[in-house]
């Protein structure tokens, strides 16, 4: 059985002009309803957030 997907929230909740959290790199739509999402959906969101974070650092 797979481990539950942990929220990438780091408690630095600030949205930029694109409504992207500068702490966890999730969109507002990805943040809302996190608890109700399936583990598969959460995994996709975390992957996308990591990709956004890497793009922001390059």
Description:
The chain has 58 residues and is mainly α. The protein has one domain. Helix content is 40%, strand content 0%. It contains two helices and no strands. The termini are far apart.
Structural class: mainly alpha
Largest sheet: none
Q: In percent terms, what proportion of residues is strand?
A: under 5%
Principal-axis shape equals globular
Helical run tally: 2
Strand segment tally: 0
List the secondary-structure elements in sequence, H or E: HH
Query: What radius of gyration results from the CA coordinates?
Result: 11 Å
Instruction: Write down the oligomeric state.
Output: single chain
Helix content: 25-40%
On the 0 to 100 scale, the average pLDDT is: 93
Structural domains: how many? 1
Low-confidence stretches: none
Measure the end-to-end span: 35 Å
Keywords:
mainly alpha; 2 helices; globular
SSE blueprint and pairings:
Layout: H1 28-31, H2 39-57
Could you give a short description of this structure?
This protein has one domain.
